[in-house]
């Protein structure tokens, strides 16, 4: 029997609380000076924020549009970044590939691990252990990314050789895991580093969601004779799915935009390589960080244009996440 | 992002002004230590620390550019400001490109650059230099060393075509015939060649590829520039990044300023048209600069190096960094300070500081020309 069906028969939500209407009336009929000042202040800040965002968007789009007319290459398909040259030639294909691939690797590694940690903390670990584990996971989030970069370059990279030669020996035939034997500063290493970096946020949000699973669901499942794993599979995971998805999207956002750690660890080449173990690709943020210093005006505009693309990709990812969550609203923690 | 950066810069410079102001005040209050100290209104007086003439220099000089000359500038600024207490030299090593951009926008008094100005940049400079244009003054030279990590090989000799093939991914292992021919008797392993280049844009890349293009035109087909163009190979961020990789990775080779070739990194001796292979040293780089031609027009002293020198001991892969400023129409407020500072660094005392920092001093003939040009700036 599917326990989750109990959700469908749950009592309909209460009619909107009268408190809300009272607030509205208060806002409309604000007569006391304090109310009016506060109303003005908050409205002003809201409008200011919108104006600021619009100004930034206009500025970025303007600079990007200027440089795109000068570009001799195709902005989407050129495998080259000679934005300082005359004429400038640059394209984002390699960057888009590298950004998405490294973030995907990070997600594939981090999400299962994070969900596992979150389940362990909320459902398996003795109380004495779950506190310290949560605390250590939180600490991971507090480490600055440049420190991850240094750790990656000095500790992680030299230790990847073993894994890389193993992957090459047994899975080299796939092409994805073929290795020429270079320094292991590739997309896979970056993906692993990014996975460690996004672990805390995905774990934390998932843990909070799993904690909010109604006690009744779990007890009902237990009462029907379900084992602990069956409880998790039938009650906890379906309830937490949208929460885990939003947690993953937060992590994905971080992985897409990570700059310094990637710039320190990756061996970027302006080339797409099917192998994840050989150098190839680069990411938007890493490319901006390493090329900005020596860029002339055109070069800077080109980097801004690439930044806009990253912005759009992030927007799409967020939009997709929202759409997924909206479709599963009945399970979201807020309505539980 | 740019806005944020600017604001931070502004805050930083405000802080710097405040601190320097405080320092200047305390300097006034304290007793003068020793004779020959500077007097702002006293004309051409000589300072205690060597031949630094402060003249009527005062105020804050903003400059930005090449990070390759950062260590030299730091050493100079320390000495200069000890002598001329009314001047603050604020050099931001944000990169040659950014330095030139800032200069052309009129934000700095001079720029430091690893490459001479391009024709279109000289044209653009008319906007900031009234009735005149910007000129290049060579100031710091330095060998670009080729650091390598080949177990068991203590001395390695390479020439331009071999280097081009190595960095273009044509030579795959260290026991390649081309390398063996240049190193008879060396015990070359069959380790894979791992050529590292810079992942960021860099004047060092620009100068190194200029050398490859000029000295091995048959093997290096790329245009050159600050961004690396050849395919294949590996890359790392900054000179320190590639040097780190050479240290860690067996079979690695890369190019960086000599000062990064430390902690046991061995450097390649370059075979030129002379009879003996040349070691990467400051002296040998100076010899190469001495053989350079001045190609700048008028007072512009842009140099063109001879990448295939026949002179014994001239190290061909040499980088020359310039200070860039207006021939005429410099900001009259900072001009005395700029002239006084540049006179010091182009002088014997200033240049003699260089070799201890891994740089190469300018040869006497070129240094004299640079000093003459500085004296004529207005």
Automatic annotation (TrEMBL), chain A:
<feature type="transmembrane region" description="Helical">
    <location>
        <begin position="46"/>
        <end position="68"/>
    </location>
</feature>
<feature type="transmembrane region" description="Helical">
    <location>
        <begin position="187"/>
        <end position="210"/>
    </location>
</feature>
<dbReference type="GO" id="GO:0005886">
    <property type="term" value="C:plasma membrane"/>
</dbReference>
<dbReference type="GO" id="GO:0005315">
    <property type="term" value="F:phosphate transmembrane transporter activity"/>
</dbReference>
<dbReference type="GO" id="GO:0006817">
    <property type="term" value="P:phosphate ion transport"/>
</dbReference>
<keyword id="KW-0592">Phosphate transport</keyword>
<dbReference type="Pfam" id="PF00528">
    <property type="entry name" value="BPD_transp_1"/>
</dbReference>
<comment type="function">
    <text>Part of the binding-protein-dependent transport system for phosphate; probably responsible for the translocation of the substrate across the membrane.</text>
</comment>
<keyword id="KW-1003">Cell membrane</keyword>
<feature type="transmembrane region" description="Helical">
    <location>
        <begin position="302"/>
        <end position="321"/>
    </location>
</feature>
<dbReference type="InterPro" id="IPR011864">
    <property type="entry name" value="Phosphate_PstC"/>
</dbReference>
<feature type="region of interest" description="Disordered">
    <location>
        <begin position="1"/>
        <end position="31"/>
    </location>
</feature>
<keyword id="KW-0813">Transport</keyword>
<protein>
    <recommendedName>
        <fullName>Phosphate transport system permease protein</fullName>
    </recommendedName>
</protein>
<feature type="domain" description="ABC transmembrane type-1">
    <location>
        <begin position="96"/>
        <end position="321"/>
    </location>
</feature>
<dbReference type="InterPro" id="IPR035906">
    <property type="entry name" value="MetI-like_sf"/>
</dbReference>
<keyword id="KW-1133">Transmembrane helix</keyword>
<dbReference type="InterPro" id="IPR000515">
    <property type="entry name" value="MetI-like"/>
</dbReference>
<dbReference type="InterPro" id="IPR051124">
    <property type="entry name" value="Phosphate_Transport_Permease"/>
</dbReference>
<feature type="compositionally biased region" description="Pro residues">
    <location>
        <begin position="10"/>
        <end position="19"/>
    </location>
</feature>
<keyword id="KW-0472">Membrane</keyword>
<feature type="transmembrane region" description="Helical">
    <location>
        <begin position="133"/>
        <end position="157"/>
    </location>
</feature>
<keyword id="KW-0812">Transmembrane</keyword>
<comment type="similarity">
    <text>Belongs to the binding-protein-dependent transport system permease family. CysTW subfamily.</text>
</comment>
<feature type="transmembrane region" description="Helical">
    <location>
        <begin position="88"/>
        <end position="121"/>
    </location>
</feature>
């Amino acid at each position: 029997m599917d326990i989750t069906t109990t959700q469908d028969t749950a009592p309909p939500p209460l009619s909107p609380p009268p408190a809300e209407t009272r607030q509205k009336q208060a806002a409309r009929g604000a007569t006391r000076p304090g109310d009016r000042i506060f109303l003005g202040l908050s409205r002003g800040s809201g409008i200011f924020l919108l104006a600021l965002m619009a100004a930034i968007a206009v500025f970025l789009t303007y600079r990007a549009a200027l440089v795109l007319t000068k570009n001799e290459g195709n902005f989407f398909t050129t495998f080259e970044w000679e934005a300082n040259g005359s004429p400038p030639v640059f394209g984002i294909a390699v960057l888009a590939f590298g950004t998405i691939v490294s973030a995907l690797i990070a997600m594939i590694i981090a999400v299962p691990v994070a969900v596992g940690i979150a389940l362990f903390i909320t459902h398996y670990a003795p109380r004495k252990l779950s506190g310290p584990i949560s605390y250590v996971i939180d600490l991971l989030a507090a480490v600055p990314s440049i420190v991850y970069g240094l750790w990656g370059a000095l500790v992680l990279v030299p230790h990847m050789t073993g894994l890389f030669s193993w992957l090459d020996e047994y899975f080299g035939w796939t092409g994805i895991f073929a290795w020429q034997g270079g320094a292991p500063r590739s997309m896979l290493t970056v993906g692993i580093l990014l996975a460690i970096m996004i672990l805390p946020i995905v774990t934390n949000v998932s843990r909070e969601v799993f904690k909010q699973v109604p006690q009744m669901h779990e007890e009902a499942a237990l009462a029907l004779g379900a084992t602990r794993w069956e409880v998790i599979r039938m009650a906890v995971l379906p309830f937490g799915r949208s929460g885990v998805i939003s947690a993953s999207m937060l992590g994905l956002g971080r992985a897409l935009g990570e700059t310094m750690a990637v710039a320190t660890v990756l061996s970027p080449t302006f080339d797409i390589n099917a192998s994840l173990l050989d150098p190839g690709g680069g990411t938007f943020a890493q490319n901006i960080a390493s090329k900005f210093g020596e860029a002339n005006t055109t070069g800077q505009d080109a980097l801004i244009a690439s930044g806009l693309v990253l912005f759009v990709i992030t927007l799409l990812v967020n939009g997709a996440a929202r759409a997924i969550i909206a479709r599963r609203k009945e399970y979201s923690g807020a309505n539980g | 992002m740019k806005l944020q950066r600017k604001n931070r810069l502004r805050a930083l410079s405000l802080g710097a002004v405040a601190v320097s102001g405080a320092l200047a005040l305390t300097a006034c209050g304290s007793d003068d230590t020793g004779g020959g100290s500077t007097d702002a209104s006293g004309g051409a007086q000589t300072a205690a620390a060597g031949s630094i003439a402060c003249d009527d220099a005062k105020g804050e000089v903003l400059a930005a550019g090449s990070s390759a000359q950062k260590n030299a500038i730091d050493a100079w600024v320390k000495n200069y400001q000890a002598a001329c207490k009314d001047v603050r030299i604020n050099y931001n090593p944000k990169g040659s490109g950014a330095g030139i951009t800032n200069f052309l926008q009129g934000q700095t008094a001079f720029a430091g650059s690893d490459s001479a100005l391009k024709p279109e940049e000289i044209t653009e400079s008319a906007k900031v230099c009234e009735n005149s244009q910007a000129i290049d003054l060579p100031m710091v030279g330095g060998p670009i060393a080729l650091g390598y990590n080949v177990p068991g090989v203590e001395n390695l000799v390479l020439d331009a075509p071999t280097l081009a093939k190595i960095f273009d991914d044509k030579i795959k292992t260290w026991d390649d015939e081309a390398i063996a021919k240049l190193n008879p008797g060396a015990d070359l392993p069959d380790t894979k060649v791992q050529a590292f280049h810079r992942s960021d844009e860099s004047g060092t890349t620009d100068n190194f590829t200029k050398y490859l293009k000029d000295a091995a035109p048959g093997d290096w087909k790329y245009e050159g520039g600050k961004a690396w163009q050849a395919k294949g190979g590996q890359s790392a961020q900054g000179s320190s990044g590639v040097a780190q990789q050479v240290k860690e990775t067996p079979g690695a080779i890369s190019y960086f300023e000599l000062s990064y070739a430390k902690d046991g990194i061995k450097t390649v001796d370059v075979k030129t048209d002379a009879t003996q292979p040349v070691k990467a040293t400051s002296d040998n780089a100076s010899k190469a600069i001495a053989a350079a031609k001045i190609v700048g027009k008028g007072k512009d002293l842009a140099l063109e190096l001879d990448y295939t020198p026949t002179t014994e001991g001239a190290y061909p892969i040499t980088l020359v960094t310039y200070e860039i400023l207006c021939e005429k129409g410099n900001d009259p407020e900072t001009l005395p300070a700029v002239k006084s500072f540049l006179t010091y660094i182009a002088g014997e005392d200033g240049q003699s500081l260089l070799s201890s920092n891994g740089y190469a001093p300018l040869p006497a003939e070129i240094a004299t020309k640079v000093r003459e040009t500085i004296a004529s700036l207005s």
